[in-house]
């Protein structure tokens, strides 16, 4: 199991930046994959950015070049740096840990953090 706690959301003007943090209750070094997802009002949850323990990173087309996912293994924390924010980035952002195929329960989610981009 792993517990995830997101932080760093808030209200920001268009063109601004935020950094979200996802603190895990255990080491993230060997976690199969970790990522950020978001759910905008009236829309389905979508992948924003993800990396796996093989070093592969993927981003949604809508955030490429603006968002960067990173990790600090010493702090058991995953970050999402969001630059050049747009109103359409407004959503609740969730962190997810995928423990991998050896686990019966693979996916764990944080409670989410609200990001609002508005002038």
Record keyword descriptors for this entry.
11 strands, 119 residues, seven-stranded mixed sheet, mainly beta
| Quaternary structure | single chain
Low-confidence stretches: none
Derived from helix and strand composition plus strand pairing, the structural class reads mainly beta
Helix run count: 0
What percent of the residues sit in helical stretches (DSSP H or I)? under 10%
Q: What's the rounded overall pLDDT mean?
A: 95
- The helix/strand series, from N terminus to C terminus, equals EEEEEEEEEEE
Globular, elongated, flat, extended or rod-shaped: what is the shape? globular
Distance between the termini: 40 Å
Largest sheet: 7 strands, mixed
Q: What fraction of residues sit in β-strands?
A: over 45%
SS elements, strand count: 11
Compute the gyration radius: what is it? 14 Å
């Amino acid at each position: 199991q792993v517990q995830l706690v997101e932080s760093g959301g808030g209200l920001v003007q268009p063109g601004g930046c935020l950094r979200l943090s996802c603190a895990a209750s255990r080491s993230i070094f060997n976690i199969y994959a970790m990522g950020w997802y978001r759910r905008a009002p009236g829309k389905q949850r979508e992948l924003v950015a993800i990396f796996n323990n093989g070093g592969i990173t993927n981003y949604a087309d809508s955030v490429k070049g603006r968002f960067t996912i990173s990790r600090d293994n010493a702090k058991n924390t995953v970050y999402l740096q969001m630059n050049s924010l747009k109103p359409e980035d407004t959503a609740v952002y969730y962190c997810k840990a995928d423990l991998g195929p050896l686990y019966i329960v693979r996916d764990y989610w944080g409670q989410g953090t609200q990001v609002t981009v508005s002038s």
